[in-house]
Amino acid sequence: MVDKSKDEPFKAGDRTREDSTVRSVEVTDFYDTMKENFIKVVDEVAKVQPQYSQSISNLQLDYIHAIKNTINTAFIAQRNVTESNPTAWSQTPSTTPLNEQLAKQSNEITNNTIRAVGINNQLTINALDAARENLKIYNRTIDAVTEFNTNAAKAWNSFFTAQQQQLFRH
User: Fold this and answer.
1) What stretches of the chain adopt beta strand conformation (E)?
2) Structurally, how many domains does the chain consist of?
3) Is residue 10 predicted with pLDDT exceeding 50?
4) How far is CA 128 from the centre of its chain?
5) Are residues 114 and 161 in the same domain?
6) Final residue in a domain of this structure, among 90, 112, 142
7) Is residue 11 assigned to a domain?
8) Containing domain of residue 63, as a range?
9) Residue where a domain stops, chosen among 48, 64, 90
10) Element of type H or E holding 113
């Protein structure tokens, strides 16, 4: 009589390895499919990003044009009112000391505003550049963490497989 009990654990181990391989392929296919789907969504968003940027830029330019038009129209209307009835305005706006002082202060405020806008623009550009740099660092960190986790998983799987093989041999 042949004792088959010694062979059965080995055969069971072979089936487990075959089942494990099939499951591993299925899991890999699942992850690949999910990854591809996420990449497709990001790619679709990336396709329209230039259009969004252009639309936002066009809107900003339209706002700037509207603001300039409003300023021009308001001052033209004020000048027309002043020039249409010279007797109502005893002095022309540019000849009084008060008007000269107001013009000087207006110029100072304008120059300070322009400097403040320039500083704000530079700060904003620096913040955007810093955010881009942080994204680069984040991507490098994700790569490093992924590599570490992959190596840890491989080490654990090697240890676990070795333990299973020892268990099935005894």
Assistant:
1) none
2) 2
3) no
4) 10
5) yes
6) 90
7) no
8) 24-90
9) 90
10) helix 97-169
Q: Which amino acid is at 124?
A: T
Is 16 inside a domain boundary? no
Tell whether 109 and 84 lie within a shared domain.
no
Residue type (1 letter), 146? T
**Half-sphere exposure of residue 127, counting CA atoms within 13 Å on the CB side?**
6
- pLDDT, one tens digit per residue, over 38-76 is 999 999 999 999 999 999 999 999 999 999 999 999 999
Q: How far is CA 126 from the centre of its chain?
A: 15
| Alpha-carbon dihedral angle through residues 22, 26, 29, 31, given to the nearest 10 degrees | -130
Written as six digits, the tokens of 41 are: 């969504």
DSSP assignments along 56-96, one per residue: HHHHHHHHHHHHHHHHHHHHHHHHHHHHH-TTT-SS-TTSS
Q: Verify that 54 and 105 share a domain, yes or no.
A: no
pLDDT tens, residue by residue, 68-118: 999 999 999 988 888 887 776 655 555 678 888 999 999 999 999 999 999
